[in-house]
Amino acid sequence: MTDEVEADLEPHWETIPTGNSDFIGFQTQRAPQLIAISEGCRVLAEHPLVMAVMDRVLLPMCKRYRLHVTNGIRVGPDETPQMLHRDDELFRGYVPHDRRQLLTNMIWAMSDFTAANGATRILPGSHTGSEDTVPDEEDLVQAEMPRGSLALYHGSTFHGAGRNTTDQPRTGVLFGYSLGWLRQEENQYLAVPPDVAQTLPKSLQELIGYAVHPLFLGGVDQRDPSTVLGDGTDALLEPAESGKGS
Ligand SMILES: O=C(O)CCC(=O)C(=O)O
Ligand SMILES: [Fe+2]
After folding, report:
1. How many domains does the chain have?
2. Is 209 left (phi over 0), alpha (psi -120 to 50) or beta?
3. Are 177 and 228 part of one and the same domain?
4. Which domain, by its residues, includes 111?
């Protein structure tokens, strides 16, 4: 699938600008809306291994999880290290930090990830630390891995893309997954509007958000959003029914 995803993204890199901050990088390009632009990414997003991990990490806190964000990340030559961060900082100002995860990410290597070209730097064990944890650079490990591999890390694990000292880009595709009752980082309904969502497998429609989270979070006109995709049902949501954990 790596070849397919690479081919899907290739035409986009020509027009995507580099970033302008320590977070999104200065020599780094980011391709958004991967579900809309890449059939290969549709397959990766639902990879059974990744789903099994998310079932285990996220389902204790929700009835279904969502695709939170998608990003092709091409770290160019001479890029400085990305600032270390926790992806769940989006929420932690409002939800106290504890070991339960609000989100979990995977990054899939589209090129070899090496210490020299900016393999993701990760601080193992930092998901158990408090809000006040200050990451120590000495404790970082790099997710060095051959093209076609993936790395997974919790939303509260400190990490960031590394420095690229080579003359070639380091490319990965990042998929984040979050508890189904949280607002997604990437607005999947704008990124993947109904006319595109209609063409996707049902499981992927649900993963990006075209399905209520029980009881009836995310409905439209008292109905499940899948009705907008023309799934044939027009049933009104019934809290007693949907509350059973469907
Ligand atoms: O590109 C990477 O290695 C990590 C990117 C990242 O952590 C992010 O964009 O939030
Ligand atoms: Fe991140």
Report:
1. 2
2. left
3. no
4. 2-210
Q: Are 36 and 191 in contact (CB under 8 A)?
A: yes
* Pair (156, 71) in one structural domain: yes
Q: Which ligand is nearest to the CA of 143?
A: 1
pLDDT tens for the chain, 246 residues long, are 999 999 999 999 999 999 999 889 999 999 999 999 999 999 999 999 999 999 999 999 999 999 999 999 999 999 999 999 999 999 988 988 888 899 999 999 999 999 999 999 999 999 987 888 888 889 999 999 999 999 999 999 999 999 999 999 999 999 999 999 999 999 999 999 999 999 999 999 999 999 999 999 999 988 999 998 987 678 888 866 544 444
CA 80 – ligand 1 centroid, Å: 13
Which CATH number does the domain housing residue 82 bear?
2.60.120.620
Ligand 1 atom 8: residue of nearest CA? 160
